[in-house]
Amino acid sequence: MTNTTKIVFIGAGSAAFGLSLFQDLFSTSELAGSTLTLVDTNPEALDRMAALAEVLNREGDARITIEKTTDRKAALVGAGFVLCAIAIDRNRLWKLDFEVPKKHGIRHTLGENGGPGGLFFTLRTLPLIVDIVRDVEAICPDALFINLSNPESRIVLGLSRCTSVRSIGLCHGIFLARWFVCQILGMAEKEVDVWGAGLNHFQWLTAIRERSSGRDLYPLLREREKTHDPAFTPLTRRLFHAFGLWVTCSDDHMGEYLPYGWEGGEHGFDFENDERGRVILKDLMDGVIDGSKAIPDDWTKPSWGERAVAVIAGILHNQKRFIESGIVVNRGVVPGLPDELAVEVPLIADAAGVHPVSLGRLPDPIVKLLSVQAGVQQLAVEAALRGSKELALQALLIDPVITSSTAAVAILDELWEANKPYIRPCL
């Protein structure tokens, strides 16, 4: 393999996404000779991740050149692929996204991709990502932009509205759904293939098959689910009973889109445990970097998550690589949903680009359920692109999670003020 490229990773200070990417990059020789340029506005986090990248690069003999910079525009020169994993004041604002609606009587979960939290994640995040992609458009217009930031569906939809840069989103949600299914089946994840189509965090598994034989595992799932612990992912199973297909990716993520989503667990993100985990992870990283701690075995193996490296290798080497799941603009891939909507489906990556795989029409009741969320996402993106408080209120009032117009106005006023520094027109 002689083809090489330059990969720019914006938001490289993110320990979780960064480590997952490093696992995939440095456990293969497919990108040998290529350059990885790490970009972050936090110099301390950037230095840590760059040092870790050097260690794992040597350990895996991946032969990738590592660069780092806080200058985004300088980094983009000559890029073939741009990865983005950013969040603005992540935990503080995300807590508000969950707590403010709850204070006003809205029962919901997580507050990240759906409901009022999903709206405000979009309002503050999309303008920044549009700025980044416009730099890509000006400096490396042929690069593929790979988004890893939430809310994925809305980001990809928004980018399609205001830039010509090729972009996709990647998420590990389908693998999380496979994990849940395998707990009921009593099978190892490596033994099971799943195919899904729909929206990000709201995909429906059209097929669950045994990898070795191709055997349809849905009959076994239906049989074993009857006697499985009823406390295990109850909301997903209620929808499974009602609609006939398993929905991704978990009660809390999928529940963000539904007025009864809180029935799967009325809680926000576990910020305290997340903060503890980050401290532990950073301490481990520092030990690996200075040699005082051994490299964990799983850090030198491919990750369980996003398939960014598989996409890059498939395109770079024209491998026609199958990617289990990615977020793209619909254009008929999921019949019955709007063409301009961002949907999540399987992909094929080769030298000609990224090609969505249509799994055909989903059952009509599922299309109707997804269509409710489609309108919410379209209007939320329009509000973000125009920086419009009026459109934001409308987006809340058509969201099924909102059950009170009085609460909608109160939530809007309070969260708009908290996010005001980041909301601005993009069109």
From TrEMBL:
* The keyword NADP belongs to this UniProt entry's keyword annotation: no
Q: What Pfam families has UniProt attached to this entry?
A: Glyco_hydro_4 (PF02056), Glyco_hydro_4C (PF11975)
Q: Which GO terms describe its molecular function?
A: hydrolase activity, hydrolyzing O-glycosyl compounds; metal ion binding; oxidoreductase activity, acting on the CH-OH group of donors, NAD or NADP as acceptor
Quote the record's binding site residues for substrate: 150
**What InterPro entries would the database entry show?**
GH4_Enzyme_sf (IPR053715), Glyco_hydro_4 (IPR001088), Glyco_hydro_4_C (IPR022616), Lactate_DH/Glyco_Ohase_4_C (IPR015955), NAD(P)-bd_dom_sf (IPR036291)
Question: What keywords would UniProt list here?
Answer: Carbohydrate metabolism, Cobalt, Glycosidase, Hydrolase, Iron, Manganese, Metal-binding, NAD, Nickel
Q: Where is this site: Increases basicity of active site Tyr?
A: 112
Copy out the cofactor comment. Binds 1 NAD(+) per subunit.
Q: Name one GO biological process term.
A: carbohydrate metabolic process
Binding residues annotated for Mn(2+), in chain numbering: 171, 201
Q: Which cofactor does it need?
A: NAD(+); Mn(2+)
| Ranges where the Glycosyl hydrolase family 4 C-terminal domain occurs | 197-401
Provide the family line: Belongs to the glycosyl hydrolase 4 family.
Please report the name of this protein according to its UniProt entry. Answer: Alpha-glucosidase/alpha-galactosidase
Classification from the root reads: Bacteria, Pseudomonadati, Pseudomonadota, Alphaproteobacteria, Rhodospirillales
